[in-house]
Amino acid sequence: MTWIKDPEFVRAYTKGMDSGHKMGRPKGSQKDIHIEWRVHMILWAAQHAMQLEGDFVECGVNTGILSLAVCDYLNFEKLADRKFWLFDTFRGIPEDQMAASERAHAIGANETSYEECYELAVRNFAPYPNAKLVRGKVPESFANVDIQRVAYLSIDMNIAKPEVDAMEFFWDKLVKGAPVVFDDYGWAHSGEQHDALNAFARSRGVKIATLPTGQGLLIKP
């Protein structure tokens, strides 16, 4: 596991970890929540996407734990021909989009892990002028953006409906070979997402790989 000590990985991982989030830790804590493998997979997908034409997209940003790591790792501010579109409510999971089976876990996550963070995210991404924060619920927040081609898609919205909506919207925009990483695909509490995303994948004749990290990975054919 030489990658875990690679200075570029360590720097990128730290960038996301120091974003001011309160995932798995109290507000203001500097505790490392040890998601190295999940970030490793995100960075692998982002590096792969650099071989492709198109913008980067993340749906479910919060303070930028994953996307800040990508921006740092790729020196995204220097990629003048690309934008990184960052979609989120920046205040947690919308209750009106939760399925009945998702409510208990998602409401608990809102109480413990999420809060109003838009201004914090704006500050975090200020060094990256080509990172575009779009506030609102998915899919409504897609209405006023001009995204033609997508080389990288990260989906981490914690509930099924907006994740499937995002896949419906971006599927035809994803270029051949583009990676899609689902952050919550394989966890025990993510059954609704798992089943809904699998149904979407079947409708397109593809399959999602389950990773040991709990993530899902799909490559656009």
UniProtKB/TrEMBL annotation:
<dbReference type="InterPro" id="IPR029063">
    <property type="entry name" value="SAM-dependent_MTases_sf"/>
</dbReference>
<protein>
    <recommendedName>
        <fullName>Methyltransferase</fullName>
    </recommendedName>
</protein>
<dbReference type="InterPro" id="IPR008884">
    <property type="entry name" value="TylF_MeTrfase"/>
</dbReference>
<dbReference type="Pfam" id="PF05711">
    <property type="entry name" value="TylF"/>
</dbReference>
